[in-house]
Automatic annotation (TrEMBL):
Family per record: Belongs to the GART family.
Taxonomy, superkingdom: Bacteria
Pfam family, one: Formyl_trans_N
Record NCBIfam families: PurN
An example molecular function term from Gene Ontology annotations: phosphoribosylglycinamide formyltransferase activity
Name of this protein: Phosphoribosylglycinamide formyltransferase
Underlying gene: purN
Domain Formyl transferase N-terminal positions: 2-170
C-alpha cells in the first residue's frame, strides 16, 4: 500500500520493480494527483481521501482507505499522519527522506543540507512515528555533494539513490506478528 501526494515518480519506481517479494495492492492520495493516475494506469486500485477541516476524521478515513495493508509506504506523501493512523499501522509505515537523518528533517532536507555546507548527504528510509522524520532508521545511502550541485541537481541525484533504496527495503521486508521485519 502506497501513500502519495504528487507526481508519483517514486511510486512508479516501486510499481516497476515489483516482484515476488512485494506487490502494490492500493494507492491512496490526499488530493487528485499524477500518482493516482500512475496507479490506475498500472491497474492498481487508487483512492483520494481529501484532507478536510476535521483532521481527526481524515485520519479515520485514511485508516479505512488503507484497509488491512501489511506495509504502508509514504512515497512523497506530504501530510503528517495522525495518532489514529499511526496506532493502526504502528511499526508498519515507512517513509523516504532526501537527507541522512537525523540531519535535515522536514520538507526542505536538500535545501537545508546545501545551506549548511555539508559535503555528504543522501537518502534515508525510516519508520514513521509521531514526529517529523524522527522514526527509527531502516536504511541509508550516502552521496557526495559536488561543487556544481544546486538544489535541483542534488535532489535528482538523491532521488536516484532513494529509488534504489526503497526497492531494496521492500524486497527485504516481511510482516511477522503485526510487525514489519526488514533484513538488509
Amino acid at each position: 500500500m502506497v501513500l502519495v501526494s504528487g507526481t508519483g515518480s517514486l511510486l512508479q519506481n516501486i510499481i516497476d520493480n515489483q516482484d515476488n517479494s512485494y506487490r502494490v495492492i492500493k494507492v491512496v492520495a490526499d488530493k487528485p494527483c499524477p500518482g493516482i493516475e500512475r496507479a490506475q494506469d498500472a491497474g492498481i486500485p487508487a483512492e483520494v481521501v481529501p484532507l478536510g477541516a476535521d483532521r481527526a476524521q481524515w485520519n479515520k478515513d485514511l485508516v479505512e482507505a488503507v484497509g488491512a495493508a501489511d506495509i504502508v509506504v509514504s512515497a512523497g506523501f506530504m501530510k503528517i499522519l495522525g495518532a489514529e493512523f499511526l496506532a493502526s499501522f504502528e511499526g508498519r509505515t515507512i517513509n523516504t527522506h532526501p537527507a541522512l537523518l537525523p540531519s535535515f528533517p522536514g520538507a526542505h532536507g536538500v535545501r537545508d543540507a546545501l545551506a549548511y555546507g555539508v559535503k555528504v548527504t543522501g537518502s534515508t528510509v525510516h519508520f514513521v512515528d509521531a514526529g517529523v522524520d524522527t522514526g527509527r532508521i531502516i536504511a541509508q545511502r550516502a552521496i557526495t555533494i559536488e561543487p556544481e550541485d544546486d538544489e535541483a541537481s542534488l535532489h535528482e541525484r538523491i532521488k536516484s539513490v532513494e529509488r534504489e533504496l526503497i526497492v531494496q527495503v521492500l524486497r527485504a521486508a516481511h510482516v511477522q506478528d503485526q510487525q514489519l521485519i526488514i533484513e538488509i
